Amino acid sequence: MLKIAFDPIYAHPLPEGHRFPMLKYELIPMQLKHEGVVNDANFFSPAMLAEEIVLLTHEQAYWEKLKNLNLSYQEEKRTGFPLSAQLVERELRIAQGTIDGCHYAFEHGVAFNIAGGTHHAGSNWGEGFCLLNDQAIAANYLLNKNLASSILIIDLDVHQGNGTAQIFENEPRVFTFSVHGEKNFPFRKEQSSLDIGLPDGVGDNEYLSIIKEKIPYLLDLVKPDFVFYLAGVDVLATDKLGKLALSKEACKQRDQIVFEACFQKDIPVQVSMGGGYSPDIKDIVDAHCNTFKVAYEVYF
């Protein structure tokens, strides 16, 4: 069964100017159920992540600031929104949902988190609407529990996974791969195991040729026993922040390449959804729902 982490807190209302991107967290489950792809049994609500698991990835001093809501003005500004206890709880539940998804992926081949993809959070900073790095936390959890010994993180959000890269810069058991807009945020990039920075305006053919080449190559090179996939849809031509020019169909083909390659090698995959900022919410929801539908077709 396809298992999907979702909690109403994922759609936590933010101050004016931040609310629109949160709408997708409510609409994606509704759309998937409306289309008959899933039903209520596919969804689970994660608990709060334990502090000791947070500290496998994030520095204690940073975590204490988050927990006690005392980031400095500059630190809070870097995150992109006002810090609150509900936002910290949200991030804890998202990260636990990603960990839970790993266990479901071992059982069923693939599992999803409706939210997640908080890849701009580093070991001691929050940034770009990311406070805790859910996939990095889950990867360190798998390593700590000896549930995986070689991990590949495939980050296909339009923005570089700078926090993920920094967290694992000295961890040979985790290979970080990021395909992103070279001139896009974050403007100070970290070094992933493999970065492919794209110029503005890259379209379907060029993008898909990279994915078709690199995904099988990396699976053979890294030989991962677990894959994390960040499936951002801010690569769409309609995205107001993305600067690339992909169609929905190409975004769907991208997902299919990743899922089929992992399925053929029997490598479990946890998927977090990442970014999407098209002005029409329907474009965001459609593209995200395609990711679920492709996974369902490949695995079930």
UniProtKB/TrEMBL annotation:
InterPro entries in UniProt: HDAC_classIV, HDACs, His_deacetylse_dom, His_deacetylse_dom_sf, Ureohydrolase_dom_sf
Record keyword Hydrolase present: yes
GO terms, molecular function: histone deacetylase activity; hydrolase activity
Keywords from the UniProt entry: Hydrolase
Domain Histone deacetylase: 21-289
Biological processes annotated in GO: epigenetic regulation of gene expression
Signal sequence range: none
Chain segments annotated as transmembrane: none
CDD domains, per the entry: HDAC_classIV
Database matches in Pfam families: Hist_deacetyl
Keyword Hydrolase annotated: yes
Domain of life: Bacteria
Family designation: Belongs to the histone deacetylase family.
Protein name: Histone deacetylase
